[in-house]
Amino acid sequence: MIINKISLYNFRQFQGEQSIEFSTDESQKITLVLGDNTSGKTTILQAFLWGFYGNANFKSKDSLLNAKVAQEMLTTKKNQDVRISIELEHQGVNYYIIRTLTHYVVKGNTVKANAISKVEMKYKQSDGQTDDIPPHQIQAKIGEILPEDLAIYFLYDTERFGNITSKADVTSSVKGILGLTVLENMIKHIGTPTRLSNTVLGQFNAGLNLEGNKIATEAFNRFELAEKRKEEVTERLEQKKKEFESYSKAVAERQGILRSLEKTKQLQVQKDTKVKMMNFEKTALLNAQEQFYSSFKNNTPMFLGQALFQKALEELASAKLDKKSIRDMNANAIKDIIERGICVCGTEVCDGNSAHKHLLEEIRYLPPESIGTLLKYFKDKSETLLRAGSGFFIPLENSYKNIFNNLQKIGDLEDEIQYLNEELKKQDDINKHQEILMELEAKLRTISEDIAALNQNLGELKKVIQDSLDTYEKNIRLSERNNELLKYIEYTKQVLEWVTNHRDKRENIIKERLEEEVNKYFSMMYHGKRKVTIDDKFRVDLITTDLSEDIHTDESQGLETVKNFAFISGLVELAKEKLNDAYEKEAEAYPLILDAPFSNADEKHVKNISEVLPTVANQLILIVMAKDWNYAKNSLSNKVGREYYLNKQSEIYTKITEVK
Q1: DSSP H or E segment with residue 477
Q2: What is the spatial distance between Cα 325 and Cα 338, in angstroms, rounded to a whole number?
Q3: Is 64:113 a contact under the CB 8 Å cutoff?
Q4: Would you put residue 13 in left (φ > 0), alpha (ψ -120 to 50) or beta?
Q5: Short-list 19, 111, 31, CA closest to 74
Q6: Tally of CB atoms within 10 A around 173
Q7: 561 with 542: CB under 8 angstroms?
Q8: Prediction pTM value
Q9: How confident is the model over 401-442, as pLDDT tens digits?
């Protein structure tokens, strides 16, 4: 997007129609707007916001209508308009946006404005003719050109917007700038397979014939109920995660305060070390407990029988046991051989012959005549079980010893941490901070437990959903039409899985690239030893690299300004690279419109920022005070294509003058 011109008519202190035409020269891409305090610099920026979206963010709630014009209306009784016209080029097409708000006089000599502004939008066709965009499509078209939640990054008011990288909508904004919203919208369009949802999967499922299939109907009802519950739990989980992030940040900030106090520095370091050690021991305890439970569960009969086996062997140690018996043979088997008259080996068994006598002798050593043989079998079995159980007992005993040692270490560490907390409390200057930190840590533990419980609940619901879907799909095959729809559903699920995986992969790549680019620009703008980290929500934090380990530190207004510009520069750079593949919308290059960009930065940082910004943006519009421009002039003056001065003639009238 390139902005060619903006015209203001009776907008705040700009009486009548006044215009600014912006430089589109690639070698002199800067348009400079200079002005003193209260001359209307912020009004210029707000004019863009109102022209695009119908919203302006002024500190005062005064009317948008110029005060002198409003006063004249009380005499003339004629209606007057506030109007903003913006001319721009987007993806090779010229657009014209005109937003108007009519004011009128009511009884009591009061000037009122219509409740809603009127917006018109035209575009120039390839033959040079202009055509209107239908009114109901205008806001959607403006949102396509520059979504409102992205405007804060490109229409940037340094003094008002503060830390833009910590705002709640930063995730969706970054995704929009870098083209990821196409994948998000695709996932939403495919949707979930609930019959009530207006999605692809929902419509396919709505077309299935459930009549006469009670099992499938009940399964689908269970699925929809669990799906609804899953959405509720997921929403609660996201809320808890946000709370966890917020409290984690508060804990980190409070710890930073405590560390900065010299009297408590060593105590705090000791406590941090003990906390890390305790977390390690807790992890080791969980592993030892898991190993103990697993071993005990798999070998419980062996373990419980150890004492019994040992006692039985002690009792049998003095017993006289026959060793002439044959394993698994008893007297009834021998009697059957004698009655049959022939041995299994083929020898004839007759009354009185040697084979008959030998078999009669053998019966004496077989049960039930010989209890000694049974005892021998029992002893052999007991010894076998005892040997097997003794091998199991050693790892079980080791696991128990590890559990005991871990518990003892955790107890000792908790006592040491409690002692350090008490010592930290004794310091008068940090007592309040320490108490707040302990409260925050307690709240953080509670939230962590809530997150764990919600994750467990979510896992259970997912199982119910999958089981219900399996039952549903198994029983739904009632007709050829159902089978056809089920094929479509399965294909759509595969597409959804591919898109989701692709989205996740793209997000990770973009996060890494964004962190690289932001750090590159931050190092060019900042002259200290810090670096940028970007979390999964695309929020930016700064850490110092000047110590033995990286730590988070507080940010001054000047440092916050540098960080914001580095972040914006990184975003613009990624958008220019057009990282999106063939399945996604091309990223659009945006201009940077900056109000008071140097007001919070020192001279050296202004110089650094000035050298970087022109290399980032395709078009740069700077609205600055003359004193701030002096710091940047040496670096930027040769890149200025157009220059304007806001000539403040009174508190209610400023004239825009082009400087030749």
Answers
A1: none
A2: 18
A3: yes
A4: alpha
A5: 111
A6: 22
A7: no
A8: 0.55
A9: 888 898 988 888 888 888 888 877 765 556 777 788 888 888
